[in-house]
């Protein structure tokens, strides 16, 4: 029950209402039973149509009665002349129209209407379209009607550009119409698709790729149309800067196609005789095949984090002695049979490890090279938004959009402004401050990855950035040293176990309570956890699976105040020789 | 012209504590007024009504107050020759009520009261070539029915009876520019539909296909100044949408993106102090549907007066564990 206000009434009013309801109940039950009885007897007559009509007028959600009517109509098709049948169907549509006027949100009515039209030899789709127009004029957000309209459009072959003009018209008369913007997002990619050849670094998708989601290439819009579209949206949010519809749409326009599924990195190490494979998106290892020096290797894959069906990172080990001899050279080929792709990696003599990968910058993961034209359009968009900010300094939508535009243009150059805008966002929209913290963390991590890759180092350092969450860890597979000090992290998430090369981790001055992700890290030697929230020995248990851990700094944690801790720790972590409490 | 934010105002004297005893009394009494007009009008969804009532009673530790034998008999009499289950006697079978019936029997640990094999056949028979599911033999397609199908089969331990890959493909084809999902390909995102689709992807182990950051943003933007959540942009807040949004956020690991204290205040304010039960909004009429989603929402928010609810099945977590299910949740 929705939107029924509870009214105060006197005892007398109550009594009157009770009597009235009793009367209505009697009629209703009698009619219902009559319907059910007739159906049991197999009656397919006008009386049955009348009785069901009576009940459905009052209660259009009574699905079984629509079913009964369909049975009757199908029966009449077989016994009546064609024009009589057409009349019968027309009468049904008239009845449905009155139902929809009273209950424009009834699933049953809309479905039945579509069924009736689909059944007619000559459905009048023009009339159906104007019915939709009328209905949307009363409520332009009615999703039942929108869906019905899409069905009519499809059945009657209305061209896509005509539908786009329809959204032009609706948006023109009322910018604040999320349904129209949504519809536009489905039409534009059909009319102006992004050329699939544009993202140069991505290999062609294979034949059995997943269905098109709005984030894959086929659902993105070509640049020329995109640039025009910015203008339309800008008009909308300048007219009403607090209407969220246009801002949501704008963020979609600023968004980018999702990465193709591919192998992004192969890493191999003599120590442990280990191979690590990273995918661009979470995948299963079932389709992976390893050829070492031309010979197929049977291995057991395990995911990082463990026991996940779809993971971006998979690990396996060769039998002892396969690649351990530093005097031997090895060539590894990883085939991903499902996607018909492969990746090669050579391990030379004298080298302890080797890898082959596309960097985040190669893949244009966090920022893309913009065309001159797009750069100038985005620059002027940024200027417009900055102007709007002056008029509406508290407008969160505008603030967030400015951040997104800055990221598209120059994420590193605008880092300081971005941080300041996030701070402001958390103040003006405090209900969503955790969202902004997480988003800001993500952007700062992306910037740090970019900086690391430009510097071509394996050190990832991001301190005093108020990080509240860790992400993109699959991009950090090769990192050996990590500094996360002075942030707001409360946990090391399970995905952290992807960092198979990590040797030193400093995470001082955070709020760490959980170390789930610090497990099975084969190279981790030093861990500094100063000034966190570790209070129980059980929180340190994951570390027991890191065989090389020798140095552990726990100073400034509540756990240091408990008795007998050194003894318990040396039992849990026998490899740690350098313990600071 | 500026958009007026559609929202409600919570009065200072609105309830701010959970009135568990009142709600239990309200639900226990609800099923007894069988000759009430309103009650009779809702016969077409009776099976779901019973699921709402029993689940909220279980969450409140009051399941024993309901008449197990009577309800089980009723469910048995609603299973049809085709295996499907109807909302009530005399009504036609449908996936919506088939799921409700299986949920109820799972609460009672008694799914064998009905013919499980026939239910599986029924669900299987409704899958279409494109992977979607019809709600019944009349062919209406909706991602809600995809959820009903996999939730029913998962509770029965028979998920492999259908073509799961195809089913996943269809649900993913309903994903939108905002990261949300609609009824069918091309349909606008809607919180109820998003709940069904994220729940579906959780049960089928495909949550990595969701754009969790984008969808999470849309979902947390459903929270209005009153603290309540709406189901789509520019709509009023509602206790049932609060559940659908909140459960979806829990499934994709982003529940901390909303203000929990404010939402809790809104949900509590939707209680009726006189009659017990929750309404869609403060001051409206209560019903079992919003009573379940009010209590379940508070459970997801961490209220320890009620049992822990599973965000995917909207049933007590202990029941889902007993069945042996571990639906995926993003971290
Ligand atoms: Zn509601």
Automatic annotation (TrEMBL), chain A:
It comes from the Eukaryota. Its EC number is 2.5.1.60. It catalyses: geranylgeranyl diphosphate + L-cysteinyl-[protein] = S-geranylgeranyl-L-cysteinyl-[protein] + diphosphate. GO terms for cellular component: Rab-protein geranylgeranyltransferase complex. The keyword Amino-acid biosynthesis does not apply. Residues 263-360 form the Rab geranylgeranyltransferase alpha subunit insert-domain domain. Keywords: Leucine-rich repeat, Phosphoprotein, Prenyltransferase, Repeat, Transferase. PANTHER family: GERANYLGERANYL TRANSFERASE TYPE-2 SUBUNIT ALPHA, PROTEIN FARNESYLTRANSFERASE ALPHA SUBUNIT/RAB GERANYLGERANYL TRANSFERASE ALPHA SUBUNIT. Catalyzes the transfer of a geranylgeranyl moiety from geranylgeranyl diphosphate to both cysteines of Rab proteins with the C-terminal sequence -XXCC, -XCXC and -CCXX, such as RAB1A, RAB3A, RAB5A and RAB7A. Belongs to the protein prenyltransferase subunit alpha family. This is Geranylgeranyl transferase type-2 subunit alpha. It comes from Clupea harengus (Atlantic herring).
Automatic annotation (TrEMBL), chain B:
Its cofactor is Zn(2+). This is Geranylgeranyl transferase type-2 subunit beta. One of its GO terms (molecular function) is metal ion binding. Catalyzes the transfer of a geranylgeranyl moiety from geranylgeranyl diphosphate to both cysteines of Rab proteins with the C-terminal sequence -XXCC, -XCXC and -CCXX, such as RAB1A, RAB3A, RAB5A and RAB7A. Its EC number is 2.5.1.60. InterPro entries: PGGT1B-like, Prenyltrans, Ptb1, Terpenoid_cyclase/PrenylTrfase. It comes from Clupea harengus (Atlantic herring). CDD domains: GGTase-II (cd02894). Belongs to the protein prenyltransferase subunit beta family. Keywords: Metal-binding, Phosphoprotein, Prenyltransferase, Repeat, Transferase, Zinc. Binds 1 zinc ion per subunit. It catalyses: geranylgeranyl diphosphate + L-cysteinyl-[protein] = S-geranylgeranyl-L-cysteinyl-[protein] + diphosphate. It holds the Pfam family Prenyltrans. PANTHER family: GERANYLGERANYL TRANSFERASE TYPE BETA SUBUNIT, GERANYLGERANYL TRANSFERASE TYPE-2 SUBUNIT BETA. GO terms for cellular component: Rab-protein geranylgeranyltransferase complex. The gene is rabggtb.
């Amino acid at each position: 029950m929705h939107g029924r206000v509870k009214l105060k009434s006197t005892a007398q009013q109550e009594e009157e209402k009770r009597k009235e309801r009793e009367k209505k109940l009697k009629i209703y039950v009698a009619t219902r039973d009559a319907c059910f009885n007739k159906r049991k007897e197999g009656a397919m007559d006008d009386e049955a149509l009348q009785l069901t009509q009576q009940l459905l007028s009052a209660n259009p959600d009574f699905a079984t009665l629509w079913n009964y009517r369909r049975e009757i109509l199908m029966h009449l098709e077989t016994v009546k002349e064609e024009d009589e049948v057409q009349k019968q169907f027309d009468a049904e549509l008239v009845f449905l129209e009155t139902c929809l006027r009273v209950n424009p949100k009834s699933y049953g009515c809309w479905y039945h209407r579509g069924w009736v039209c689909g059944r007619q030899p000559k459905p009048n789709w023009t009339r159906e379209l104007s019915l939709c127009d009328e209905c949307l004029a009363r409520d332009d957000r009615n999703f039942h009607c929108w869906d019905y309209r899409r069905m009519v459009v499809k059945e009657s072959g209305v061209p896509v550009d005509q539908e786009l003009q329809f959204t032009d018209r609706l948006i023109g008369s009322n910018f604040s119409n999320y349904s129209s913007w949504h519809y536009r997002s489905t039409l534009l990619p059909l009319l102006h698709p992004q050329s699939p050849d544009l993202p140069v670094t991505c290999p062609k998708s294979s034949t059995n790729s997943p269905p098109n989601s709005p984030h894959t290439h086929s659902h993105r819009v070509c640049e020329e149309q995109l640039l025009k579209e910015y203008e339309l949206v800008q008009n909308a949010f300048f007219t009403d800067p607090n209407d969220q519809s246009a801002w949501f749409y704008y963020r979609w326009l600023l968004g980018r196609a999702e990465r193709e599924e591919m192998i992004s990195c192969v890493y191999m190490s003599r120590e442990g005789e280990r191979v690590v494979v990273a995918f661009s998106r979470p995948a299963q290892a079932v389709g992976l095949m390893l050829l070492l020096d031309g010979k197929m290797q049977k291995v057991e894959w395990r995911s990082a984090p463990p026991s996940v069906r779809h993971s971006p990172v998979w690990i396996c080990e060769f039998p002892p002695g396969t690649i351990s001899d530093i005097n031997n050279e090895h060539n590894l080929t990883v085939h991903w049979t499902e996607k018909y792709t492969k990746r090669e990696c050579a391990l030379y003599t004298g080298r302890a490890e080797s890898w082959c990968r596309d960097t985040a910058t190669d893949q244009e993961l966090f920022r893309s090279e913009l065309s001159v034209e797009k750069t100038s359009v985005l620059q002027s968009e940024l200027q417009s938004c900055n102007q709007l900010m002056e008029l509406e300094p508290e407008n969160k939508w505008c603030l967030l959009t400015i951040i997104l535009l800055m990221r598209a243009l120059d994420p590193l150059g605008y880092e300081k402004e971005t941080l300041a805008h996030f701070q402001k966002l958390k103040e003006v929209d405090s209900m969503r401050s955790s969202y902004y913290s997480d988003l800001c963390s993500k952007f700062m991590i992306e910037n740090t990855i970019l900086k690391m890759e430009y510097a071509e180092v394996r050190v990832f350092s991001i301190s005093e950035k108020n990080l509240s969450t860790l992400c993109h860890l699959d991009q950090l597979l090769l990192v050996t040293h990590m500094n996360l000090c002075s942030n707001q992290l409360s946990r090391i998430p399970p995905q952290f176990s992807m960092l198979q090369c990590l040797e030193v981790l400093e995470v001082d001055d955070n709020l760490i309570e959980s170390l789930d992700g610090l497990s099975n890290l084969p190279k981790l030697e030093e861990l500094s956890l100063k000034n966190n929230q570790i209070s129980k020995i059980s929180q340190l248990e994951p570390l027991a699976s890191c065989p090389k851990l020798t140095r552990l700094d726990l100073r400034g944690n509540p756990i240091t105040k408990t008795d007998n801790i050194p003894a318990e720790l040396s039992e849990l972590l026998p490899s740690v020789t350098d313990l600071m409490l | 012209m500026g958009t007026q934010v559609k929202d409600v105002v919570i009065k200072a004297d609105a309830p701010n504590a959970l009135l568990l005893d009142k709600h239990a009394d309200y639900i226990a009494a609800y099923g007894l007024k069988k000759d009430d007009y309103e009650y009779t009008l809702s016969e077409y969804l009776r099976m779901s009504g019973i699921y709402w009532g029993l689940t909220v009673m279980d969450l409140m530790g009051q399941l024993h107050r309901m008449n197990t034998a009577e309800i089980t008999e009723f469910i048995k009499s609603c299973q049809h020759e085709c295996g499907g289950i109807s909302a009530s006697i005399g009504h036609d079978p449908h996936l919506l009520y088939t799921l409700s019936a299986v949920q109820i029997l799972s609460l009672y640990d008694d799914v064998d009261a009905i013919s499980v094999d026939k239910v599986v056949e029924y669900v299987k028979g409704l899958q279409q070539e494109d992977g979607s599911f019809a709600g019944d033999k009349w062919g209406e397609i909706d991602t809600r029915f995809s959820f009903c199908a996999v939730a029913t089969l998962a509770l029965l331990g028979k998920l492999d009876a259908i073509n799961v890959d195809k089913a996943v493909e269809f649900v993913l084809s309903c994903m939108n520019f905002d990261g949300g999902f609609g009824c069918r390909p091309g349909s606008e995102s809607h919180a109820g539909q998003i709940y069904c689709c994220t729940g579906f992807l959780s049960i089928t182990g495909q949550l990595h296909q969701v754009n969790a950051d984008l969808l999470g943003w849309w979902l947390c933007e459903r929270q209005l100044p009153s603290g309540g959540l709406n189901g789509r942009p520019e709509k009023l807040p509602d206790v049932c949408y609060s559940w659908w949004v909140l459960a979806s956020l829990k499934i994709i690991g982003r529940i901390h993106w909303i203000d929990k204290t404010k939402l809790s205040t809104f949900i509590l304010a939707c209680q009726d102090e006189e009659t017990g039960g929750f309404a869609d909004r403060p001051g409206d009429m209560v019903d079992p549907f919003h009573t379940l989603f009010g209590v379940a929402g508070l459970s997801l928010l961490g209220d320890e007066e009620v049992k822990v609810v599973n965000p995917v099945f909207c049933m007590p977590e202990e029941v889902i564990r007993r069945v042996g299910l571990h639906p995926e949740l993003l971290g």
